[in-house]
Amino acid sequence: MGKLDYGLIFLLGFFSCAFIFLLYFGFGEMVGLVVADDLDLSAPSDWIADEDVLVLDDRVIIFVDNATLSGYEPTGSMRPVLGAGAGGLRVVPESEGQVKVGDIISFRADEKLIVHRIVEKGLDGEGVYFVTKGDNNSVVDGKIRFEEIEYVTVGVFW
Fold first, then answer.
1. How far apart, in whole angstroms, are the C-alpha atoms of residue 62 and residue 58?
2. Which of 37-41, 137-141, 145-149 has the lowest mean pLDDT?
3. 25 by DSSP, 3-state: which?
4. Which residues, 6 or more positions from 52, have their beta carbon under 8 angstroms from its beta carbon?
5. Same domain, residue pair 29 and 89
6. Full-model pTM
């Protein structure tokens, strides 16, 4: 290998490292790249009113009708919001109007209960649909219907 070959290898390595550095530190937009366009996730809607939370000296009481407790598998798809050791409060939604973009819902896929965030709500020929995605997943889950939603997570504790 001649000096020219070593020079090309050096330049290729240098520019590869520079490219990775730019992507890693979020400078992709400066060079015209879109690294991720979903970093601005919508927050869940407010299911618990301030007057439904009672803070005492030795405990906190939250009044939520028909709530159940939930736990989460350590899949990583919803980290850091949900993970191993996190607990939650969940309710069964009564209407599709209650469920908003940003809400974290539970639905079944292949007999497994999936807990992901709603990233889109729309209307098609079959009616209202929701598109969900795990916060750490790179692809959406696809359309689901209101009837498929089992729960909405209304509170999380760690």
1. 14
2. 37-41
3. coil
4. 62, 63, 64
5. no
6. 0.73
